[in-house]
Amino acid sequence: MEKKWNAIYVASRQEKKVFDVLQKKGIQSYLPLVKTLRQWSDRKKMVEFPLLPGYVFVCLTNESQKLLVQQTKGVVNYVYSNGKIGVVYQNEIESLQNLIRLGYHLESFPSSQRIQKGDRIQISSGPLKNLEGIVIEENNEEFFQIFLEGIDFNVRVKLPEGVLKKIHT
């Protein structure tokens, strides 16, 4: 049976602290981090930022862990979808992990801010082969979009057009 994850809202700029506390409590959690080059007046530095600001993912093994998560300082609440705690599936978590590990250019945005609906696609080659998503056209460049249905979030990654195959529905 595939693991099911839940997303939690956390207080502003508390993602790393909440993630660390959850790990210490023995709760399996995931915080997708991306590296970004930041420039100050005197230096440049690579800094890690949460890909999905305000969110941490947890994989609960029993009901008592649900309460432990809610009692963690910095946790605001679970993310709900259609009146129930939203579910993010293991394959979606693994896709995020692979995209980050492979160093693709990533950005995230709430699904309500979707730029435009596009063709459903499947990646035909490379390390992300068979992953499906939606194409968005922006500044004449192709983007691959993964939609995390359980929390209504999109993640976009820039890919060469040649690896995208249109899916006929």
Overview of this protein structure:
- The chain has 169 residues and is of the alpha+beta class.
- The chain has helices at residues 15-24, 63-70, 90-101; strands at 4-10, 28-30, 33-39, 44-50, 55-59, 75-78, 80-81, 84-85, 88-89, 106-110, 120-123, 132-138, 141-148, 153-158, 164-166.
- The strands form 4 sheets. Strands 10-14-13-12-11-15 form a 6-stranded antiparallel beta sheet, with helices on one face.
- β11 (120-123) and β12 form a beta hairpin.
- The longest helix is centred in the middle third of the chain and has 12 residues, at 90-101.
- The two termini are 28 Å apart.
- The relative contact order is 0.18.
